[in-house]
Amino acid sequence: MAIKVLLVDDHLMVRKGLRLFLHTQPDIDIIGEAENGKEALEKTAELNPDVVLMDLIMPEMDGIEATKEIKTTFPKVKVIVLTSFSDQDHVLPAIRAGAEGYQLKDIDPEELVKTIRGAYKGERQLHPQATNQLLTHVTSGSATKESDEPGIEVLTPREQEVLEQISLGKSNKEIARDLFITEKTVKTHVSSILSKLELHDRTQAALYATRKGWYNT
Fold first, then answer.
1. How many CA atoms lie within 13 A of 98 on its CB side?
2. What is the DSSP-derived secondary structure letter of residue 116?
3. Which candidate, 71, 100, 194, 204, has a CA 20 to 30 Å from the CA of 169?
4. Of 62, 51, 46, 49, whose CA–CA distance to 9 is shortest?
5. Cα separation of 48 and 76, whole Å?
6. Domains in the chain and their CATH numbers?
7. Which Pfam families does the record cross-reference, listed alphabetically (predicted)?
8. Are 33 and 5 in contact (CB under 8 A)?
9. Is the confidence at residue 108, as pLDDT, over 80?
10. Pure H helices in 23-97
11. Are 134 and 203 contacting, i.e. CB atoms less than 8 angstroms apart?
12. Do the Cβ atoms of 210 and 202 come closer than 8 Å?
């Protein structure tokens, strides 16, 4: 089954370029386009895409707000931000809004395809510059004081194993395979880890574990 993709960008030439390349991929189907966040919401409701490629700076409704609305109303839809901005003022709000991916428009086309496929499978895909911004944030004074943060002791031994796998960037399927448990069990552990560590998503968990020096990756 092909991955249904919705293109969202206020520049027609960008959308045409994306459509031209992605159309050559046998497992990707471009089902629609939108030129702003408001239209993206309407198209998402109408077309039910698997993945939305989302620009950030657009008229009427920007990509951050559109991502929030899509993830709230259509939680199964994966959102990949595709933008020219790699600073914290754009990266952090996009991740907090629920975006599964954050890539820059200078991305190699083949890497973009990998990002779409990965997001479709539930993997978070971030451009190295976006990852650096997140690391800078969690190690800066804007992050919660370490003395107030939960320690690894709040996790069960199995949850610690799962967290280590997350910090290595592995998907739920890969974790299930390596730890000889089901994907459903992995999802349960991930949910528990996020709750206990007071985090929002697995990317934050991976960065948190790395910053704490809990694992040598």
1. 18
2. H
3. 71
4. 62
5. 10
6. 3-137 (3.40.50.2300), 145-212 (1.10.10.10)
7. GerE, Response_reg
8. no
9. yes
10. 37-47, 63-73, 88-97
11. yes
12. no
185 by DSSP, 3-state: which? Answer: helix
pLDDT at 207 over 70: yes
| Nearest of 41, 74, 36, 69 to residue 55 by alpha carbon | 36
CA–CA separation, 166 and 108 (whole Å): 25
- Write out pLDDT tens, residues 139-172: 555 444 455 677 888 899 999 999 999 888 888 8
Spatial distance between the Cα atoms of 13 and 5, rounded to a whole number of angstroms: 17
Q: How many residues does the chain have?
A: 217
- For the chain, what is the mean pLDDT? 87
The answer to whether residues 186 and 172 touch, using CB atoms and an 8 Å cutoff, is yes
In the DSSP assignment, the letter for residue 166 is H
Question: Which uninterrupted H or E stretch holds 101?
Answer: strand 101-104
pLDDT in tens, 111-135: 999 999 999 998 877 876 666 665 5
Alpha helices (H) along the chain: 12-22, 37-47, 63-73, 88-97, 109-120, 128-138, 157-167, 172-179, 183-196, 202-212
Instruction: Kindly indicate the confidence band of residue 80, based on its pLDDT and cuts at 50, 70 and 90.
Output: very high
Structure tokens of 40? 């993206």
